[in-house]
What we know:
Elements: E1 4-9, E2 12-17, H1 28-42, E3 49-53, H2 68-71, H3 77-84, H4 86-95, E4 100-105, E5 108-110, H5 112-118, E6 122-126, E7 130-132, H6 146-154, H7 156-164, E8 169-170, H8 171-177, E9 182-184, H9 189-200, H10 205-219, H11 228-245
Parallel strand pairs: 2-3, 3-4, 4-6, 5-7, 6-9
Antiparallel strand pairs: 1-2, 7-8
Helix pairs in contact: 1-4, 6-7
Amino acid sequence: MAIVDIQREGPIAVARYDRGGKANALNEEAIKALIEAADELSADDTVQVVIITGTESRFSGGVDLKDDNLWRNNADAVSRHAAMSLGGVMCDRWRLLPQITIAAVEGPAVGGGGILALAADFRVMADGAFFQFPEVRLGMTLGWGGLPLLSSLIGPTRAKRALFANERIGEQDALNMGLCDKIAPAGGAVEAAKLFAQTIAECPPLALRMTKRAIDQEHRANWAAPYEADQFYLARLIAESNSQSG
């Protein structure tokens, strides 16, 4: 079974990410599959709205900390940096899709999985869904473009609180603070996202794409500084060093 399954329904496509594991965590194979899916959809001019979702019970539990292909613990510095930057490439591809994107979130969207959802234009959360970003507590920064995305959506003070206190942000709080756009019953995130997508798809396709691009260029011009991947890599090295010395 493919890690990312794409189903097209007229101008709407649903990309379902299902790695098959309990946490639906992001390992190197899954990240590459999501990059390929984004590239495929980007080239499809018949699709105007893309819904990205996980399994029926969880969006994603975050980065797979046990995947050596992703962390390359025994590799040289250049190889490790490139491997750790792959998640940022994935989020970039989804953020830069010309189509309108909606993340349909069931259950947890944690760490890198949460950042992938933030890269979408909109988020629909089911009852019981939540965001959580534990990176700072683990001795790392929020990479993959997550810091500017999170702070632009909920403001710098709330972003700091979410990160420093490792807050679990449920669907109602997410809606109140602008992290979520619509709430659906448990198990109904995709269907609610489809209804939202149908409304969006009523707009002329070219106007949709041009308007999205204009808004993003205005408000996200400096969203991902070139040094962000370096900062994430160095923070990871420090965390590893502290763990070994402890």
